[in-house]
Design brief:
The complex is a heterodimer. Chain A has a domain at 296-303 and 310-315 and 323-498. In chain A, α14 (327-358) runs antiparallel to α20 (484-496). Chain A is built from 20 helices and 2 strands. Helices cover 73% and strands 3% of the residues of chain A. A two-stranded antiparallel sheet of chain B has the order 1-2. Chain B has a domain at 284-481. The two termini of chain B are 24 Å apart. By secondary structure, chain B is mainly alpha-helical. The longest helix of chain B is centred in the last third of the chain and has 33 residues, at 327-359. Chain B is globular, with a radius of gyration of 21 Å. Chain B is built from 19 helices and 2 strands. Classes of the chains: A mainly alpha, B mainly alpha. At the A-B interface, β1, α5 and α6 of A face α15, α16, α17 and α19 of B.
Chain lengths: 498, 492
């Protein structure tokens, strides 16, 4: 532990303390709560920037306190941490703004924002965990803190969705606990390290390591929504829009995907995992998920459900990139962690705006929304085109590297999966865009709210515009030194380089 | 304060307070809080002494074993004393509000008797944990039983009296079995001192019978499956602070004696068969208790059955700690779990008391919307639930983690599976309550007002149960002092 390590603690506490204080605010103190939220999000952002600058200067950060006998609770910041940390901090900031606007007249706002902050604490904690048991702690905290958000509306349907969510995630958590404990009994405390820490055990315990790897993937795969463990995700769509946005872009599914990255790269190490022969099955599972999710998305009329199945498909791009051997695939997978987050959060912001402003929940109701809400629809369009893989947008960068990686590894079938997925993406997104821009609007929207001259509340409009701009930035400036791609190349080089 | 004084104060101060509380009704809360302060200071002093100088022994009147009474404090005893003091303090804060906020005309009357009995129970528990011989343990166990039974009867309702009576019979019969066992042991070994028994005990039919009698009695008192039948009605019908005391502390008194007997006095008799038998009963308790908890219509019954289930975890300590490899890991895990359960379960029963008084009932299906009317209590219940389920970083997790590690290291896969399944079942019954709590109601009813201290006490205990996970490495260090030889502790 060093003094600089307190910065890591500060990053966690900036949202944790905010959350605790917000719990005790009166329901009516709307202004104070909003300022606290923004203060917490802003402080976190500043601290993360300070952290990145420190890392550029060559400073290392670690923070340790005693926890279990012989097993400390440790935070650290390596390249992988920073990737996920930055993503969640930036997106949290914009989602907070969005949520303030979205929930303006809703009940239980103190409870909502309290758990919202805890949820982000958990996500940043996952990013900053330096050993397995710390990771597990935040992973479970995430489960627990998102449940109240999922059931926030308190309707029968919400409660059912919440129950499904918990049944899946808690069971996944138990499997993960078994994997962590078993590995601990074989290898002692497992600290994350580039290229893994288990090389020594490959010859003595190959069978155990394979089974433990499977357990890890099952435990993490629930949150990452790998088929057939994805059943909770479409049901969790009952949550309010900002929650869905966060769940799909950074919090839950990403935590699962990030966990898989950690296990493959920093616990097993790619070479060890390849030696054990566990990567090929993982790649196949990811491939199946990609195609399955896209096909299911095609048949959903409810907009949020369509987006949910799209998430199922897209998150497995990350898993696929990790599971294919080679630096190019790794770059494609890791960069999608960020790219998918940017695109999907924009889409959910858009869906939320349609629902809040016009009462539109279904694709079939979306005729002509482009004329009524041009800015929202423009942001939505950019994100959708990005998902399809149109050049100069974030998604294209991902797909380009994944394809390159597949060719390098000689996995012909992966190229086919990616092509099929792109076609399917186009098939379920383009009709939406066609309806929105080309078809004439109906005489009356299902439930319209008027916001004066603006197409909707400015707090609902600004976040999707910003995230859509980021989608363009990540695509156009992919090769500049300040892009997700540049950072990810650094990670891949450390994992695969000489 | 020397450690001899500390040991004496641990027994005398709650005893004196009990007498005073009886003589001066209306001063109960002040006396109890005063006791908490004195006991707390004594524990701090004793902990320092134990960590610095090992096991502390105090010979009452200077006689010493085998003639006189020895009082002894090692790591295990101290942990139990701490847990008792923590729960005791919480109850001291909570009980007055509870007895004065209900709709019960008899409440002042009940409160008058509650305080002396509660303080007497505290005395008995402290004396039990400090006892160094099996006869003294009998005496304290008997005192504990009487205090507990009377406290259950305090609720005064018909159901409570029936439950109390049943509890009384079980308790008396169990004590009798235990005493018979003690007699046989004394006849065989000519001593009742825990420390010297290990050397003198020769496994033979007499000792086996003696141990079987004692164990049978203690299992009944500790409500281990299948002897748990008296517990749910007794714990569910008692007043909330009493339910908390019973679930958190009283049943653990008997468990504590079982540990002393099998691991310290008669380790030679701890065959793998015995260890696995205990584990099997614990497993059955976990499964049966959890399933029953899932089926109960009332919150307090659910919590009581959860106690049956969670007690099962404590008995997994036997098969896991009896092994030479990784024994201490399981030993510390089981005992950390004990502390975690005590805090979490107290928090839950206190929450149930809050709900009962605020809403006027504790039917689970009618709990919709309590996060709105009683947010702090609902939050406390949820947090306590985390610890019960064993989610990190709670102390419940720390305990289960250590048990799990020990089971994995020894390749005892049955217990691995059981620990995990038990956690999921616990999650299921905790969620039964919480999913109602989060359901929105069209017209929220205004609850009867209850004193804020009742809600905050429950929350504090729940937070303690979660936060103490970070103290688990310290607790494990403490437990090393005077740990049974079986687990690599130094011989006394």
């Amino acid at each position: 532990m060093n003094v600089h390590g307190l910065l890591l603690l500060g990053i966690l506490l900036s949202s944790f303390v905010t959350g605790l204080v917000i719990f005790f605010l009166k329901e009516e103190s709307h202004r104070l709560r909003t300022w606290l939220n923004l203060l917490g999000a802003g402080v976190k952002l500043i601290l993360v920037v300070a952290l990145i600058m420190g890392i550029y200067r060559g400073q290392t950060y670690s923070f340790t306190i005693e926890f279990l006998p012989g097993l400390p609770f440790t935070l650290g910041a390596d390249a992988n941490s920073v990737l996920f940390l930055t993503l969640s901090t930036v997106l949290w900031f914009w989602t907070t703004l969005y949520a303030v606007g979205y929930l303006e007249h809703s009940l239980h706002r103190s409870r909502f924002f309290g758990f919202f902050s805890l949820c982000v604490t958990a996500t940043t904690g996952i990013a900053l965990s330096a050993n397995l048991v710390t990771f597990l702690t935040f992973f479970e905290l995430l489960t627990v803190s998102t449940y109240p958000l999922v059931v926030h509306r308190g309707t029968k349907e919400a409660m059912r969705g919440g129950k499904t969510y918990l049944a899946y995630t808690l069971t996944g958590g138990a499997v993960l606990l078994l994997a962590v404990a078993w590995l601990h009994s074989l290898a002692g405390p497992v600290v994350f390290k580039e290229r893994g820490v288990l090389q020594a055990l490959v010859s003595s315990h190959p069978r155990e390591l394979q089974v433990i790897f499977l357990l890890f993937m099952l435990g993490l795969g629930v949150k990452a929504a790998i088929v057939p463990l994805h059943g909770w995700l479409p049901k969790a769509m009952v949550a309010p829009a900002p929650v869905s946005a966060l769940l799909h872009a950074v919090a839950v599914v990403k935590a699962g995907a990030f966990g898989i990255v950690r296990i493959v790269y920093d616990v097993y190490g790619v070479e060890t995992a390849a030696q054990l022969g566990v990567l090929q099955p993982l790649a196949i599972a990811a491939g199946i998920t990609i195609v399955y999710g896209s096909v299911r998305a095609l048949f959903q009329d409810e907009l949020k459900k369509r987006l949910a199945y799209s998430t199922v498909s897209q998150v497995s791009y990350i898993v696929l990139g990790v599971a294919i051997l080679g630096p190019a695939a790794a770059i494609g997978g890791l960069v999608h962690l960020v790219h998918q987050g940017l695109m999907k959060i924009t889409l959910f912001f858009g869906a939320g705006n349609y629902a809040e402003t016009l009462g539109i929940h279904r694709v079939s109701e979306m005729n002509g929304v482009g004329r009524r809400m041009p800015l929202t629809t423009a942001a939505f369009t950019i994100a959708a085109l990005g998902m399809i893989g149109v050049p100069f947008l974030a998604g294209a960068v991902t797909k380009q590297y994944l394809k390159l990686g597949a060719e390098q590894a000689g996995d012909e079938w992966v190229v086919w999966v990616l092509t099929a997925s792109s076609l399917l993406n186009a098939a379920y997104f383009l009709p939406i865009l066609w309806r929105a821009w080309v078809k004439p609007p109906p005489d009356q929207w299902p439930a319209e709210h008027n916001f004066g001259r603006s197409e909707t509340h400015w707090l609902l409009l600004l976040p999707p515009l910003v995230t859509a701009a980021l989608v363009i930035w990540a695509g156009v400036f992919a090769n500049s030194p300040f892009s997700p791609l540049a950072w990810v190349k650094l990670i891949a080089q450390r994992e695969y380089g000489p | 304060m020397t450690s001899a004084w500390a040991i004496a104060l641990l027994i005398l101060s709650p005893l004196a307070a009990a007498a005073l509380a009886f003589a001066f009704p209306g001063r109960g809360r002040g006396l109890a809080l005063g006791t908490a302060a004195v006991v707390g200071a004594a524990i701090v002093q004793l902990t320092r002494a134990v960590l610095a100088g090992g096991v502390q022994t105090h010979r009452v009147g200077g006689w010493g074993a085998p003639l006189g009474i020895d009082l002894r404090a090692d790591g295990l005893a101290l942990l139990m004393l701490m847990v008792t003091a923590g729960i005791g303090t919480a109850i001291s804060l909570y009980a007055q509000g509870y007895f004065r906020s209900g709709h019960d005309d008899e409440a002042p009357h009940r409160e008058r008797y509650f305080w002396p009995l509660f303080l007497f129970l505290w005395t008995a528990l402290n004396a039990l944990f400090l006892s160094a011989d099996i006869f003294n343990l009998y005496v304290t166990l008997e005192l504990l039983g009487f205090a507990a039974v009377t406290l259950v009867a305090l609720a005064g309702k018909r159901a409570a009296l029936t439950a109390a009576l049943r509890y009384l019979f079980v308790s008396l019969a169990a004590s009798l079995f235990y005493l018979l066992g003690v007699g046989l042991v004394y006849g065989q070994c000519a001593t009742v001192d825990l420390a010297s028994l290990a050397a003198k005990a020769q496994p033979g039919p007499t000792l086996w019978v003696a141990l079987a009698l004692m164990t049978g009695g203690l299992i009944a008192k500790a409500a281990l499956f299948p002897m748990h039948f008296w517990l749910p009605p007794a714990h569910a019908n008692a007043p909330a602070p009493v339910s908390a005391l019973l679930s958190a502390l009283v049943v653990k008194g008997s468990f504590y004696i079982l540990l002393r007997l099998w691991f310290e006095a008669f380790p030679a008799l701890m065959t793998p068969g015995v260890a696995q038998l205990f584990g099997g009963l614990g497993a059955a308790a976990i499964l049966w208790g959890s399933v029953q908890a899932l089926l109960q219509p009332r919150l307090k019954l659910l919590i009581a059955y959860s106690t049956v289930a969670q007690l099962g975890y404590l008995f997994l300590l036997f098969p896991l700690a009896a092994a030479r490899e990784g024994g201490f890991v399981a030993w510390s895990g089981g005992l950390i779990f004990l502390g975690a359960h005590a805090c979490a379960k107290t928090a839950m029963f206190l929450t149930a008391g809050n709900i009962l008084h605020a809403a006027g009932h504790d039917r689970i299906k009618d709990l919709d919307g309590i996060t709105h009317s009683l947010p702090i209590s609902a939050f406390a219940f949820g947090l306590a639930g985390l610890s019960l389920v064993g989610l990190p970083p709670s102390s419940g997790f720390a305990g289960k983690w250590l048990l799990l590690n020990s089971a994995l290291a020894q390749g005892q896969w049955v217990w691995v599976a059981l620990i995990l399944i038990g956690s999921l079942l616990a999650a299921a019954y905790v969620m039964r309550v919480l999913s109602h709590a989060f359901t929105r109601v069209a017209e929220p009813t205004t609850p009867n007002p209850i004193p804020p201290v009742m809600e905050w006490t429950a929350l504090a205990l729940a937070l303690l149960s979660v936060g103490l996970g970070f103290a688990s490495h310290w607790v494990a260090e403490l437990l090393r002092v005077g740990a049974p030889v079986l687990m690599g502790g130094a011989a006394p």
